[in-house]
């Protein structure tokens, strides 16, 4: 469907090496990434960050166990 | 990721001052959106990605005495996330699944092409790449890391990263140009087994966590 199109002009897969100029879809990777970066942080993260203070990093193993419990 | 406390101002027991702890937490908080974005790119499904980030945050917190202040928190936590991802992949064999949320957003409509490329096309194509190429491309092409930084995160040579990024770009360009992006069901299995094959190699040979 949307992906089923004919290639028009020249594209980046030519003979000029693996990383010549970024392909035209390259900006899409940043868009995918940035769209997540810009999302509002879910409450579950705020809760977790709040909880961190109560976890003593010196007891690292205990903290890791807690993590496993909470991540189901 | 050294635990040698040689040039470390902090106490050998690993206990941090309240100030250190507060600034660590601030930095950690700041990178959470980036961790979510990296995880989403790696494993596709938002819920699994967020589980991975939560796991990463807890591991980072537990290991905070190994973080060197002044270095990149984003790079340091990406290593943790990456290793957690590889471990989960091997343990649970969860598959990269598509994020329906990006479904039909138009990414670009290059001149001379009948149909625009949709962000969802790119996303699906990305998820078919072997894990090591996908992460290399994500780090460099989406996360904005240099090849050198990406190499450090993945625990491999700079040339290896360049090669992986190049191959990933070529594969995506090919898929997007030809419309040969795997669709939802059956092709997943092919992509998935390819990912798992490469995973063994990645996890065995290049784990950053095993380096001194």
From TrEMBL, chain A:
Location of the Anti-sigma factor NepR domain: 23-54
Pfam families assigned to the protein according to its UniProt record, in alphabetical order: NepR
InterPro entries from the UniProt entry: NepR (IPR041649)
Region (Disordered), start-end ranges: 1-26
Protein name stated in the entry: Anti-sigma factor NepR domain-containing protein
TrEMBL record, chain B:
Pfam families linked: Sigma70_r2, Sigma70_r4_2
Keyword line: Sigma factor, Transcription, Transcription regulation
Gene3D superfamilies: 1.10.1740.10, Winged helix-like DNA-binding domain superfamily/Winged helix DNA-binding domain (1.10.10.10)
CDD domains per the UniProt record, alphabetical: Sigma70_r4
GO molecular function per UniProt: DNA binding; sigma factor activity
Domain of life according to the entry: Bacteria
All copies of domain RNA polymerase sigma factor 70 region 4 type, residue ranges: 121-172
RNA polymerase sigma-70 region domain span: 31-93
Keyword Transport: no
GO BP annotations, alphabetical order: DNA-templated transcription initiation
This protein's record includes keyword Transcription: yes
Family: Belongs to the sigma-70 factor family. ECF subfamily.
Name of protein: RNA polymerase sigma-70 factor (ECF subfamily)
Organism, scientific name: Erythrobacter ramosus
């Amino acid at each position: 469907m949307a992906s089923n199109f004919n290639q028009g002009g020249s594209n980046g897969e030519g003979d000029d090496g693996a990383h010549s100029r970024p392909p035209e879809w390259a900006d899409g990777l940043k868009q995918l990434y940035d769209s997540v970066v810009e999302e509002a942080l879910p409450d579950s993260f705020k809760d977790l960050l709040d909880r961190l203070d109560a976890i003593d990093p010196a007891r690292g193993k205990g903290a890791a166990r807690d993590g496993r419990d909470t991540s189901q | 990721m050294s635990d040698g406390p040689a040039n470390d101002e902090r106490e050998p027991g690993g206990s941090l001052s309240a100030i250190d702890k507060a600034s660590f937490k601030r930095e950690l908080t700041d990178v959470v959106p980036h961790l979510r974005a990296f995880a989403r790119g790696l494993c596709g499904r938002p819920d699994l990605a967020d589980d991975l980030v939560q796991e990463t945050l807890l591991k980072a917190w537990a290991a905070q005495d190994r973080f060197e202040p002044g270095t990149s928190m984003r790079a340091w936590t990406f290593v943790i996330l990456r290793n957690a991802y590889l471990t989960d992949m091997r343990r649970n064999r969860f598959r990269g699944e598509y994020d329906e949320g990006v479904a039909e957003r138009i990414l670009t409509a290059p001149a001379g092409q009948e149909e625009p490329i949709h962000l969802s096309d790119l996303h699906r194509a990305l998820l078919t790449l072997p894990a090591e190429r996908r992460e290399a491309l994500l780090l460099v092409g989406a996360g904005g890391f240099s090849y050198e930084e990406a190499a450090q995160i993945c625990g491999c040579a700079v040339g290896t990263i360049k090669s992986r990024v190049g191959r990933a770009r070529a594969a995506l360009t090919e898929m997007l140009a030809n419309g040969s992006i795997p669709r939802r069901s059956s092709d997943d299995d092919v992509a998935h087994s390819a990912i798992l094959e490469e995973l063994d190699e990645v996890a065995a040979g290049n784990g950053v966590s095993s380096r001194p």
